[in-house]
Specification:
globular, binds zinc ion, Rossmann fold, OB fold (Dihydrolipoamide Acetyltransferase, E2P), alpha/beta, 5-stranded mixed β-barrel, binds guanosine-5'-diphosphate
Length: 333
């Protein structure tokens, strides 16, 4: 009697997350597993109403099909190869995403990442000196995109003592506005455990102006990661022919991060004057008490936001960032 083992080709279907996009293919992983396998797009997947140059972005959850000659118990990476990649058949609607435009004037946008659980905005009080209006703009952008933010103050070893008052004021302003503020030092390792803990179970965006120590911090979180320090500069991002590929990394302690080079060019939202205050959480809350609606919180009588600024419940710095954005409306895109 013969035992005939026939290895049939099986069509496997499933859902996975895009963790990388290279020129020719995507890498998928069935998060929270880290089982990378290649995939290609079938035909043209176009998202309705999207001007994005990339219809599928890092963080997208996609449906895939793969024809494999193995069994379901095998890891995908063993069955799906570059010669026989999976095929992406659809993209699951995003809970959020963050974009950048190729240039200031360009109408084309590039989706940096989708489905982010949180953005960690890395900053320093000093070395380099913090620019609050710039930070506030980033925070507004994250509010617009519906991405919860944690502010991570790095290099506290350098300024905790020399800038103690500023540090305390910073906590008051931003925690008062509803943003968690963590203090860390990639150099001494202080606070790094807490940050690692905060990353667990999440897909997190890491962003910050260059020089704040973002790469050092990522390395401190997981020494096996080696973000390409300084390799992708903002200047290059503005170049027409340069394609930037964002990538998701798995932290060995759990959680996934998307590292973004620089912050310039992210913060590109079109907001109408009367919308801007909706994205300053503390102003939105106070504005319930304004006599007029809508209220720009500038000249209107009975404005509860101005009153809150005057009695110190809303920080003057935040309010002045808001005024700056009102003035620049249309220009800061
Ligand atoms: P990135 O541009 O944000 O990725 O910054 P890097 O990680 O390249 O760091 C910029 C500089 O700051 C480097 O010289 C780092 O050694 C230094 N640096 C990073 N983190 C810390 C820190 O926590 N404390 C101190 N004193 N220096 C740091
Ligand atoms: Zn008002």
């Amino acid at each position: 009697m013969y035992l005939c083992i026939e290895i049939a080709n099986v069509m496997m279907k499933g859902e996975a997350t895009v963790v990388k996009h290279t020129g020719s293919h995507y890498l998928l992983s069935r998060l929270p597993e880290w089982d990378l396998f290649p995939a290609v797009l079938r035909g043209k997947i176009r998202l309705k109403g999207s001007s994005a140059t990339n219809p599928v972005a890092v963080g997208d959850v996609v449906a895939y099909e793969a024809e494999v000659s193995g069994n379901e118990g095998m890891p995908m990476s063993g069955m799906v190869t570059l010669e026989n990649p999976a095929v992406i058949t659809s993209v699951t609607p995003r809970k959020n995403y963050i974009i950048r435009k190729s240039t200031n004037l360009s109408r084309q946008s590039h989706i940096i990442a989708a489905n982010l659980d949180r953005a960690f905005i890395i900053a320093t009080i000093d070395y380099p000196e913090i620019k609050l209006p710039f930070l506030d703009r980033i925070l507004v952008t994250c509010e617009v995109y519906n991405i919860p933010v944690t502010i991570v103050l790095n290099k506290v070893d350098l300024y905790r003592d020399s800038h103690a008052e500023m540090l305390q004021a910073f906590h008051e302003i931003y925690e008062g506005a509803g943003y968690p503020v963590m203090e860390v030092s990639a150099l001494t390792g202080e606070g790094v455990d807490a940050l690692r803990e905060a990353c667990k179970g999440n897909v997190s965006l890491f962003s910050g102006v260059s020089g704040v120590g973002k790469s050092s911090l990522i390395k401190a979180l997981d020494p096996s990661l080696d973000p390409r320090v300084g390799e992708i500069s903002d200047v290059h991002l503005q170049g027409k022919h340069t394609t930037t590929f964002y990538e998701m990394y798995a932290l060995s302690s759990g959680g996934f991060i998307v590292d973004t080079p620089g912050l310039r060019g992210f913060g590109l939202v079109d907001l109408k004057k009367e919308e801007i205050a909706l994205y300053f959480p503390e102003m939105l809350k106070a504005s319930e008490g304004c006599r007029f609606a809508p209220c720009t919180h500038t000249h209107e009588p009975g404005c509860a936001v101005k009153e809150a600024v005057e009695n110190g419940d809303i920080s003057y710095d935040r309010y002045s960032s808001y005024l700056g954005m009102l003035e620049e409306e249309g220009k800061y895109r």
